[in-house]
Amino acid sequence: MTSEELKNCRLALNLTQKQLGEIMGYSQQAIARWENGYGDMSRHTDKIFRDFFKSDFNTEKARMYEALFTYSETRTLISIIDIRTDEIIKHIDDANREQSLNELSRLTVIRNKLL
To answer: What is the value of pTM for the model shown?
Structure first.
């Protein structure tokens, strides 16, 4: 598999180098090295990647990984919103009440969309 084939197949599945590496059991650095032509895959590795990209299950694997990744990102964003919300509530006073309430409202809308 050429470096261009590897990159095109990865991009066709909408995966990052890190995601593909995790799915296939290789580091992001190995994927980057192969895609940039700095080193060749062994025949065995080449076959594994070709089989993966030809597999009927490859898009399902990619979707499953993307769902897990998206879930993790969403949980992180919700945690950040919760921390910011707590900070606003702790520091609210008459001078900044309207601005604070507007920000709390925006954060609540964003948080609810993530859920």
So the answer is: 0.48
